[in-house]
Amino acid sequence: MKLRDFVLLSASAALLTPLVAVAHHSVAINFERGEPIEIRGTVKEVHMRNPHSQYVVAVPDADGAITEWLVEWSDRNSLVRRGVDLDLIKPGDTITLALWPSQRLPHVGYFVQAVLADGSIYRDCGFVQYREAVANSTKFRCEEGAREAAQGATP
Amino acid sequence: MNALLRMSVPLMAACAFADDALGAGTRADLDGVWLFYSAQVPKDPGLTPAGQQKLEQYDPLRDDTDTVCKPVTFTNIMHTPSPPIEIRQRGDHVEINYEFMDVHRRVLLRGELASAPYTVADYPHMGRSLGRYENEALVVDTVDVEAGYLDTLGFPGLPQSADMRTEERFIPDGDRLKVIVTHHDSVYYTKPMVMTYDFVRVDTEIMEWGCTLEGANYDKRLDAAEGK
Q1: I need a labelling partner for A16 at 20 to 30 A (CA). Which of A92, B4, B41, B66 fits?
Q2: Which CATH architecture has domain B24-204?
């Protein structure tokens, strides 16, 4: 089978019979992947593991009451392949997170971006960008993932 | 029309990409590490009444054994996007190592299917397999699987009986791999049920997955909050 046939067959089939992705543990199903919400708090737990990494973040409200948020991220192995520093966020760090909120429950979200303890910003490129780089035989560069220095900070 | 145009642009790009086509694949192309690219799942799997009933009974909290570190099926593993699979041809057998849940499969190329050893020594429920080559393709037949659910991710709740026979056809084409999986199970399906997966070669090594109950059942907090 020629590569052209492979691509055409795959593309055609994908258009005709889209992948049914309605799994219980599917990111697409569990999280609203639109405009992210923002939380700010102190990291209590860090679990960089498979099949999903997790943070527990203590978020105070205006009255000082604390709510624990569960933040999901990609599987550990996938983060390693994307060159993500697994020590990016540590227990005790005070950070601001942009999250896709859970469609089912409050105080649960999926990692989109973090303003880290030093004020720098970290955005994730995600698996799809990695996969496309592999498919196109191009070097994977997560430019979005590069930490942006905090505004006004000394380089 | 705009929608059609929007769809045709990536198709045209894909065709342009395909112009750099490699020749037809060879058996040697199979060796390597492969990353999931896409999958095609039938809209209508052709369920029998018993199959439809079993699908309706599917409860992901109870029936998705991934959440207790028990891999569901090879069909299900291949729907898991990011962990790659490794194929190594060893003369009288083929090793297929799935990063997801550290599933290390051994497919003999000689012998009888019914008496073949379990294809994953640690997981007898995944059945017995025997492989053969048809031209450039590796064809693997599998029987003696545990009755339950075939898929919890691509088409959650598709059932399988203990009588199911599965044929996996691994078709290499340079840095591309297509896997066509045909499930024969007259208990739950009125016709062969086919799923197709496309993979791309990736320059990486299989890593340890290290499944833990805490990590695997990451919906636990969600489920607890729902009172389940």
Answers
A1: B66
A2: Beta Barrel (2.40)
